[in-house]
Amino acid sequence: MQFWFEFASTYSYPAALRVEALARRHGVPLEWKAFLLGPIFQAQGWNDSPFNLFPVQGRYMWRDLERICADLELPFRRPDRFPQHSVLAARIACRFASEPWLPDFVRAVFRANFAEDRDIAQPEVLEQCLNRLDLPGAELLQQAQSPESKALLRAQTERAVALGIFGAPTFIVGDELFWGNDRLEAALAWATRRLA
Questions:
Q1: Among the listed residues 108, 180, 95, the one whose alpha carbon sits nearest the alpha carbon of residue 140
Q2: Which domain holds residue 48?
Q3: Are 103 and 20 in contact (CB under 8 A)?
Q4: Quick one: signal sequence residues (predicted)?
Q5: HSE-up of 168 (CA within 13 Å, CB side)?
Q6: 119 and 84 Cβ atoms separated by less than 8 Å
Q7: Which domain CATH number covers 18?
Q8: I need a labelling partner for 129 at 20 to 30 A (CA). Which of 67, 86, 110, 120 fits?
Q9: Whole-model pTM?
Q10: Is 54 left (phi over 0), alpha (psi -120 to 50) or beta?
Q11: Separation CA 46–CA 116 (nearest Å)
Q12: ω into 100 cis (within 30 of 0)
């Protein structure tokens, strides 16, 4: 199963914190796929998150996210700024997608954004997320800002568009697309049937 996520995406936060354990429990191999929603929204004529463009929907989303996090016993603090600029974090996730520490880094960035209200656009915040995992944060950040890393993220976002992804989180199993944190269990059930 592929897990497509955006670090600025509210509903990607609870999904990112629970997807690995659930996939392991179901025996489903998992691929982590960072991408950017901004270009997808811009192609639809939006210059901001739909949760900002449509205030009624936005108010519902924040309350819904509070309920979800309370139910899952996840810490939550509404960010002062939404959405946060997530390009550098996504470049790190694309550049080091095959590293065993990637899921821990992804969770650390989501916690920084949605539990600690830290600015994940700031390199020092991401460096701290890496350093806390006993990784050479400054060195990895430098690699993530290379032209190759930028190209990887651009290609991955283009791949998301080609797959028909329009929001995050999205789970893909074979040719099936499941959109939203609330579709994680359905995606895993589908993947389990395919494996059987």
A1: 95
A2: 2-195
A3: yes
A4: none
A5: 27
A6: yes
A7: 3.40.30.10
A8: 67
A9: 0.95
A10: beta
A11: 28
A12: no
